[in-house]
UniProtKB/TrEMBL annotation:
The keyword Thylakoid does not apply. It comes from Telmatospirillum siberiense. Residues 83-155 form the Transcription elongation factor GreA/GreB C-terminal domain. Residues 5-75 form the Transcription elongation factor GreA/GreB N-terminal domain. InterPro entries: GreA/GreB_C_sf, TF_GreA/GreB_CS, Tscrpt_elong_fac_GreA, Tscrpt_elong_fac_GreA/B, Tscrpt_elong_fac_GreA/B_C, Tscrpt_elong_fac_GreA/B_fam, Tscrpt_elong_fac_GreA/B_N, Tscrpt_elong_fac_GreA/B_N_sf. The keyword DNA-binding applies. Necessary for efficient RNA polymerase transcription elongation past template-encoded arresting sites. The arresting sites in DNA have the property of trapping a certain fraction of elongating RNA polymerases that pass through, resulting in locked ternary complexes. Cleavage of the nascent transcript by cleavage factors such as GreA or GreB allows the resumption of elongation from the new 3'terminus. GreA releases sequences of 2 to 3 nucleotides. This is Transcription elongation factor GreA.
C-alpha cells in the first residue's frame, strides 16, 4: 500500500512550482553548463565539468523525489475544517507556561514545514503532543533544552 503524504494546498503548490522550476529551467541550464565544460577539453581535470555533473545529479534526484511526494500527496484544505480539537491543518496559538510568550503555528506536512515561518511538521514532537487537544489544555514537550510546557490559547482552521 502506498503511504499518503498529508499536505496543505499551499504546500502542494510550492512543491509543484519547485518541480516546474527544476524541469523547465535548472535542468536545461545544467545541460548547457556540461556542454560548455566539455568544450574546455580534458574532462578528468575539468572542475567546471565535475561541478556541473554533480549539480545535474542533485537536480535529477530532487525531481524524482518531488514527483514521488506529489504523486502520494493527500491534500487537506484546513479552510474546510472546523471543530474544537487540534488536527492537521489547524493554526494554534500557544503560550509558554514559563514566560507567557505566545507563538502561532500551523500544523502542516513534513515537506512544507518551516518553523521560522510558523509551519510545524505533523511529525514533530510538539505537533504530536497537540493533536487531539483543545483550547485551555496544557501540553508538555521534551526538547533538546529540557521539558517545555505550553497552554493552548487559540485554535482556528484557515
Amino acid at each position: 500500500m502506498v503511504e499518503k503524504v498529508p499536505m496543505t494546498p499551499v504546500g502542494l503548490k510550492n512543491l509543484e512550482d519547485e518541480l516546474r522550476q527544476l524541469k523547465n529551467f535548472e535542468r536545461r541550464a545544467v545541460i548547457r553548463a556540461i556542454a560548455e565544460a566539455r568544450e574546455h577539453g580534458d574532462l578528468s581535470e575539468n572542475a567546471e565539468y565535475t561541478a556541473a555533473r554533480e549539480r545535474q545529479s542533485f537536480i535529477e534526484g530532487r525531481i524524482t523525489e518531488l514527483e514521488d511526494i506529489i504523486g502520494r500527496a493527500q491534500v487537506i484544505d484546513a479552510s474546510q475544517l472546523s471543530g474544537d480539537t487540534i488536527r492537521f491543518g489547524a493554526t494554534v496559538t500557544l503560550a509558554d507556561e514559563d514566560n507567557d510568550e505566545e507563538s502561532v503555528y500551523q500544523i502542516v506536512g513534513l515537506h512544507e514545514a518551516d518553523i521560522k515561518s510558523g509551519r510545524l511538521s505533523i511529525h514533530s514532537p510538539l505537533a504530536r503532543a497537540l493533536i487531539g487537544k483543545s483550547v485551555g489544555d496544557s501540553v508538555e514537550v521534551s526538547t533538546p533544552g529540557g521539558s517545555k510546557s505550553y497552554e493552548i490559547v487559540a485554535l482556528r482552521f484557515c
